[in-house]
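Many introductory courses stop at the sequence. We go one step further.
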Amino acid sequence: MRKINKRNVVILILVIIIVGFNHFKKANDKKFIINDYLITTGIIIDYSIIGDTNSHYITYEYFIKERRYERTIYYPSRNLEFIYDNIEKYSNWHFLVLCSKKDNSKSIIDFSKRIERIPSHQDIIDFSSFK
């Protein structure tokens, strides 16, 4: 039987703590934004597939009071993969972005549907599709 190495156990515990902290922080940021938000639109400016596991990352930009903001997120869904090979063609697609009134750099985006107009606060009922 193989002996458990203390070093490996410590590394495993650290990885679990880091992953747990990141998950908690993302959930907290989303709640922070949803409590008091501004509505705008964002466009995809970069789509990357990184590593052997094909991790998908999307960078989007949005503007608040003529100031540009940018955010890169891990996007596990493959439903936007067609954009990867032709980012220029799809860079004019607009998606709904909510950002914090207190810190405009904190934002969440909804890639579930393209939008033609910015909806009112009353139109946004379901926040589950925001990332």
